[in-house]
């Protein structure tokens, strides 16, 4: 039987998943290997009846430039008991599998790290290489290199946001946009900066103070009031969903917004639109000070995850896949493939990236870096001390809407 490799995709989809799988398939087929595609993410590795199929050139050639993921995905996370009792070594033995390729984000990478340590401890002759993806751009790649899928998602998100901005300008309204980003604000900031949005709110802004509903609202109102002073009666606000995940649950409850809570009393934010949630809160606050502004919510989320990859990611994902083959050919394992600006592939060893808990920590926006500072310094609109007198026409206490005072910058 030929030597084989098996590929799985984990977590949520990102543009370029199929490009990686298709390119991996072509590369390994060309070098005499069988290629198996595993459905169901990691769940297939811990199942007695895994669903997988043999990949050929025609499947690879059909899917490589399409959005979504041909291989069904899941967010399954194996327990320690799963590793000891349910790891399907038989799947690898019966198919003569020499390499496991995992494609995913931080959670998938963390599980890949556990698998690498497990295989090493059991002395199983199976190598594994991880390909980093996520539209959140929060895997710790060197030189601020993006994760695949990020640029395609940002491109589509910016398309939605600039259309929303034109709607706001045309109708004289404010559109409140929520963008995906569970633990980092890369996507929200990328969309906000690309569309000259007057206010983008990301978790990393709160590096010198706690995140609260009141501060999020006041940052938004700071932009609205500043634009009123400038004679601009419209705009957009982009808010990263991560700011809501970092809120104290009691703070959310105090707003009176109706929502469900889990058995631990935490708000189930995954079930609701963060744009609608924030828009409802904002409308109440605007009503309290009789500031006449029309706001509308827009969610940027699932609509950017499965779009076709743009040329950047088509090229980048192909390089990542070919890089994975190169690393395998050199005998590498337990690593994440990294492709530098020159297209050269390098291994990033998962054990070097892990924290004390064995997880791969997310890369957050460098709020002191040029990308963030140039936007907040030049494009953003907000109240400063020079605006207090004019802002006093709209609010009694304009200093409370001072951008830098809110953030303690």
CATH domain class name of the largest domain: Alpha Beta
> At the third CATH level, what is the topology name of the largest domain?
Rossmann fold
Number of domains: 2
Strand content: 5-15%
* Beta strands, count: 11
Oligomer: single chain
How would you characterize the largest beta sheet?
7 strands, mixed
Task: Please count the helical segments.
Answer: 16
CATH architecture designation of the largest domain: 3-Layer(aba) Sandwich
Q: CATH superfamily of the largest domain, please?
A: Phosphofructokinase domain
Please tell me about this protein's structure.
With 409 residues, the protein is of the alpha/beta class. It has 2 domains: 4-149 and 309-353, Rossmann fold, CATH 3.40.50.450; 152-304 and 366-407, Rossmann fold. Helix content is 40%, strand content 15%. It is built from 16 helices and 11 strands. Helix 5 (106-122) links the parallel strand 4 and strand 5 (127-132). The longest helix has 22 residues, at 150-171. The radius of gyration is 23 Å and the shape is elongated.
Output the keywords.
11 strands, seven-stranded mixed β-sheet, single chain, Rossmann fold, 409 residues, alpha/beta, four-stranded parallel β-sheet, 16 helices
